[in-house]
Amino acid sequence: MRRIFLFCVITAWLGPGHAMAAEDPELATFVDQSRQMVQAFAGALKGELQAAVKEGGPRHAISVCQLTAPQIARDMSARPGWTVGRTSHKLRNPANAPDAWEAAALDDFLARAAAGQNPKGLETAALVEADGGKTYRYMKAIPVQEVCLSCHGSGIAAEVRERIEALYPDDRATGFAVGDLRGAFTVTRAVMEP
């Protein structure tokens, strides 16, 4: 596990209409860019999931999260220095396991949600130093929506459950209700030194 040193941290609720209390204009720009990328990722993923459910039901939609979501992340990570993905405290795909910074952010999101904050507005950003370089980090919470329940809720149909178990034998991503914190989108960008 690599050590991460925080230089500048913004861990605040940065919902629409709230001013970001940041001294670092580059961090503010990074947050704006990250929000746009997350919105694009979320929109593309939701559209693909809805289309798959309409076409072949929830069992068919599993392939969207298994194959399409990682492809969307790779496509969005095509810009040099940028990485976009998803992570969670309750994993389905072990490839999405959080690193130390992401795990701490997820813990913070869970605590804030338990204190009554709507997961829809939870996000955090920081400039961190790791492995001899500086990186901007951003996470935006993913609240469970109705479309998620067929595969992530409590009453999963037998054929869907069988497919999930075949693809993800160590699955822990069930038992959610609408509005719960499912996980988070995560964005990183390497800081280019002059």
Strand adjacency order, main sheet: 1-3-4-5-2
Number of helices: 4
Query: Globular, elongated, flat, extended or rod-shaped: what is the shape?
Result: globular
Helicity level: 40-55%
Mean pLDDT, to the nearest integer, reads 85
Secondary structure category: alpha+beta
Order of helices and strands: EHEHEEHHE
Distance between the termini: 28 Å
Radius of gyration: 17 Å
Largest sheet: 5 strands, antiparallel
Share of β-strand residues: 15-25%
Structural summary, described in words:
The protein has 194 residues and is an alpha+beta fold. Helix content is 42%, strand content 21%. Strands 1-3-4-5-2 form a 5-stranded antiparallel sheet. The two termini are 28 Å apart. Mean pLDDT is 85; it is low at 1-22.
Describe this protein with a few key phrases.
alpha+beta; disordered N terminus; 42% helix; 4 helices; 194 residues; five-stranded antiparallel sheet
SSE map:
Blueprint lengths: L4 E6 L14 H52 L5 E6 L12 H15 L8 E8 L2 E11 L5 H4 L5 H10 L13 E10 L4
Antiparallel strand pairs: 1-3, 2-5, 3-4, 4-5
Short description:
By secondary structure, this protein is of the alpha+beta class. It is 42% helix and 21% strand.
